[in-house]
């Protein structure tokens, strides 16, 4: 049996590894000639860590996951601590440590684990067709590929999503812009073992430790879509949006390299119930494009792969397995997309009264409520 996997990113490579572990031959196709990760880093929460271990790639997390042992929120002007607590109870309850990781390192190590030469690059899909014999796909270079079934892990702009759904769902602007990148850890800005977030005015500035003595940083600002801003205006833009914020924030802005800082207008897609059509299944962002506000996008793709692989371990009946996959995943991924959207709206001041109430709640936060919420999300995954 052979699977065609479209997409050589985190979801596609996780799926390929899961299927190979289930005894299924895989061909992996990637549209670009060279993968350049979107975004500087990614949060791998314990559910994602468990998935990586389940797939045999736990060593990647052990080697490259950042030492994030504490969590803190700071008031935006004076940097007064609103709440600060250990993440040890989260690790104890979930059986894994949160592991922020550089996207470039994660992508590189996953490619090496699968086999870089085993991914066919520069293969952009134009269409697919099903027959009694399986699935055939056509690429822009005129070539084709044939397999027994197809996994579409081709991202939030999926070319195969319309085939599965029968329509093209619109992307929804979440209302804010995110700047992100990597900088060397500076303890005068934030502790090197803590996720530190400055909040105020419906904005946030966040730093997470990743490997190599670096922070993954991001700035969020509610803004209209399509402003004429790019790397050339980076420092002036952030200095304007964060005028009056704490000295730590100003110091961070001053250290940024515009050439390595990303500016992204954040979108998601309204959840849909259909993840499968015939012998074609959506996986990862192709099936559930979310905002990054609860850090579950990559973890959800890994969960998809684990479920798919485990189902194929139990049965080689493609229709049965893909039907089960859809039933097992659709409620879970819908929940994650909507949770992220709800958190997005509170964090970014969609209803300013709710956002101000959240700031007040943080002053009384002991860590228990936040950790309970994280555990609820994490333990809803397939590996508990």
Order of helices and strands: EHEEHHEEHEHEEEEEHEEEEHHEEEHHHH
Radius of gyration: 21 Å
Q: Into which percent range does the helicity of residues fall?
A: 25-40%
Shape: globular
- For the secondary structure, the number of strands is 18
What fraction of residues sit in β-strands?
25-35%
Helical stretch tally: 12
Structural class: alpha/beta
For the report, how would you describe the main beta sheet? 7 strands, mixed
Going across the major beta sheet, what is the strand order?
Answer: 5-4-13-14-15-12-16
Average pLDDT, rounded to a whole number, is: 97
Q: What distance lies between the first and last C-alpha atoms, to the nearest angstrom?
A: 30 Å
Low-confidence runs of at least 5 consecutive residues: none
């Amino acid at each position: 049996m052979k699977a065609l996997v479209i997409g050589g990113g985190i979801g596609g490579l996780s799926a390929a590894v899961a299927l190979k572990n289930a005894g299924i031959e895989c061909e992996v196709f990637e549209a670009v000639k060279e993968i350049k990760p979107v975004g500087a880093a990614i949060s791998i929460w314990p559910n994602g860590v468990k998935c990586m271990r389940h797939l045999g790639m736990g060593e990647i997390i052990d080697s490259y996951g950042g030492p994030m042992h504490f969590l803190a929120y700071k008031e935006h002007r004076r940097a007064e601590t609103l709440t600060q607590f250990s993440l040890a109870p989260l690790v104890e309850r979930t059986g894994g440590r949160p592991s922020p990781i550089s996207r470039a390192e994660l992508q590189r190590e996953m490619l090496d684990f699968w086999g870089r030469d085993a991914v066919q690059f520069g293969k952009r899909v134009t269409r697919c067709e099903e027959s009694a014999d399986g699935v055939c796909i056509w690429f822009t270079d005129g070539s084709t590929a044939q397999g027994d079934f197809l996994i579409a892990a081709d991202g939030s702009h999926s070319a195969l999503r319309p085939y599965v759904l029968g329509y093209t769902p619109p992307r929804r602007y979440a209302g804010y812009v995110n700047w992100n990148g990597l900088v060397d850890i500076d303890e005068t800005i934030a502790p090197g073992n803590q996720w530190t977030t400055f909040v105020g005015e419906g904005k946030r500035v966040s730093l997470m430790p990743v490997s190599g003595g670096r922070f993954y940083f991001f700035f969020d600002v509610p803004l209209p879509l399509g402003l004429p801003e790019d790397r050339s205006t980076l420092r002036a833009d952030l200095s304007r949006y964060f005028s009056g914020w704490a000295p730590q924030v100003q110091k961070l802005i001053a250290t940024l390299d515009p050439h390595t800082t990303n500016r992204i207008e954040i979108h998601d897609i309204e959840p849909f119930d259909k993840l499968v059509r015939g012998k074609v299944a959506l996986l990862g962002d192709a099936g559930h494009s979310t905002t990054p506000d609860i850090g579950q996008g990559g973890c959800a793709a890994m969960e998809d792969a684990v479920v798919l692989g485990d189902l194929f371990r139990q049965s080689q009946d493609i229709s049965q397995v893909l039907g089960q996959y859809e039933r097992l995943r659709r409620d879970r991924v819908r929940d994650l997309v909507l949770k992220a959207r709800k958190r997005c709206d509170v964090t970014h001041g969609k209803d300013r009264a709710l956002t101000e109430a959240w700031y007040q709640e943080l002053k009384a936060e002991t860590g228990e409520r936040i950790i309970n919420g994280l555990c609820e999300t994490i333990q809803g995954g397939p590996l508990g």
